[in-house]
Write a structure and sequence with these properties.
0% strand; disordered N terminus; mainly alpha
Length: 57
């Protein structure tokens, strides 16, 4: 990461983006845990990761 840049972690993302928060909390607990472990940085990354897991959500 470049000096002076900041990337959101999953906690920040859920706190600051209502779409991410709602999507995350609509998922089953096991998927939520996988997202936390991966520590996605954006709503789009979260959606893509979930689709790669099983394509259901």
């Amino acid at each position: 990461m470049r000096e002076g840049s900041y990337q959101l972690g999953i906690s920040d993302l859920l706190d600051q983006d209502i779409s991410s928060y709602e999507y995350f909390h609509s998922l089953p607990a096991d998927i939520q845990q996988k997202i936390i472990q991966k520590d996605v940085m954006s709503f789009e990354e979260m959606q893509s990761y979930v689709k790669s897991l099983n394509g259901k959500y």
